[in-house]
Amino acid sequence: MVNNAVLEVKHLKKYYEINQGWFKPKIQVKAVDDISFTVMKGETFGLVGESGCGKSTTGRSILRLNPITNGQILFHGKDISKLSYEEMRKLRRKMQMVFQDPYASLNPKKTIRQILTEPLRVHGLYSKQEREQKTVEMLETVGLSAYHLDRYPHEFSGGQRQRIGIARAVILHPELIVTDEPVSALDVSVQSQVINLLLKLQKEFQLTYVFISHDLSVVEHVTDRVAVMYLGKIVELAETEALFANPLHPYTKALISAVPASHPDEEKQRIVLKGDVPSPANPPSGCTFHPRCSACMAICKTKKPPIITLDNGHTVACHLYE
Ligand code: SF4
């Protein structure tokens, strides 16, 4: 076990089978294909990439919301990938998730009081009166109040609903929270408020985050390290500052080139990616990025690039660095 590691993902694979119809063989889709990374205590670890690259599947697999195909998920050194439903239910107190769409993730028929006291009740924590008190405290921590207790999710704005989703995740005092595109469904005007709330709660409750996002400007702002995913694989992993200052993989370079300049005088040359992410049901040969890569060489079309480790643990999977 890596010292101070909260989460270690080792050779995680999540494959699906798709029916093509009568008398046709099933197709195997490699949504996540042999990825490994470690998340340290108190860290915010970013997972980025275009939609369909496997980052949300990875997030759900970490919390065992999806059964995994192969690999290990170690939480404080203990492999949780094969825990029973009951063992996993107990552990969920320590591992929570904040979803992209707060409206879809909150039961519309329940009041905020019911939504927030439920996790405490399910885990047998506190008396009824204490649960009420904890709920009010948590609402106040996320910028709402006791006044909102008997209201329903539809009575809130998107930003307030996400605050409730965050309160529901934090009320159990977890150690690890996987946030899946936590602000992408919100108006730009409230995105920074919700990001600041997540950062405030991280300090207050010593939280560790896995932060899934396609928005690299947010990722640059909030994360300590970042893994870039493409077609189910990690193609680059580095400390955030190093990644943004010196991206190595052509895919990462293209993603970062699309981030708006932080200063009007800063000149940025946008690298436009050709086409869309290919279907994981029929991935390109060799380096799966090769049909879109402007630096593609002959070897890239036939041979998968190995993962190469450079200074400070900066890793990249690309033949250019062999
Ligand atoms: Fe481009 Fe080749 Fe590197 Fe893939 S391995 S990213 S195709 S240069």
Automatic annotation (TrEMBL):
SUPFAM superfamilies reported in the protein's UniProt record: P-loop containing nucleoside triphosphate hydrolases
Domain ABC transporter: 7-256
GO molecular function, one term: ATP binding
Top-level taxon of the source organism: Bacteria
Gene3D superfamilies reported in the protein's UniProt record: P-loop containing nucleotide triphosphate hydrolases
One matching Pfam family: ABC_tran
Cell membrane as UniProt keyword: no
Record-linked InterPro entries: AAA+_ATPase, ABC_transp_ATP-bind, ABC_transporter-like_ATP-bd, ABC_transporter-like_CS, Oligopep_ABC_C, P-loop_NTPase
Keywords per UniProt: ATP-binding, Nucleotide-binding, Transport
Record-stated family: Belongs to the ABC transporter superfamily.
Protein name stated in the entry: Oligopeptide/dipeptide ABC transporter ATP-binding protein
Natural source organism: Bacillus chungangensis
